[in-house]
Amino acid sequence: MSTSIVVGISENATMSIFSKALDIARSRDARIIAVHVFDCPIPCRARLDYCNWESMIAAERARGRMTLERALARFDNGVPAVEGRMLMRGTTGSTVGRDIASICEASDADLVILGSRRQGWWRFLDEDVARNVRRHTSTPVQIVDVAFDDARPREHRS
Q1: Which of 3, 2, 1, 5 is nearest to 141 (CA)?
Q2: What pTM does this model have?
């Protein structure tokens, strides 16, 4: 049985997440499964007939693909295998954490690596991804502290 590590990737993933995942994958001779979960755009319900639903979803998929491709390029060196998976979170009540947990269960992952939550008064509205992953899988979760990491990928620097 091969060892696999699931890494949750967001649009603003920092270099510390990639470094930590690469270090662990090399030490365990593990494959990396990079997972990016993006939200399904919800159009204005009052004017649903005027929304171009297909183009909105296509744009979000393209954006998600670009995020995943950037992440895979950072994992390209030094690990036995790297795989990318992208999921669209719909309006069915699913959460990012639940979707990452389902990938862990399906791939029989040995570890999940996630970035820490960012600080801000508005963050109470956001999902606690790590808590939801822990709730829906028995796979161990490692949180990489990104609070003071400004070594973000160059594409994201302002």
Answers
A1: 5
A2: 0.79
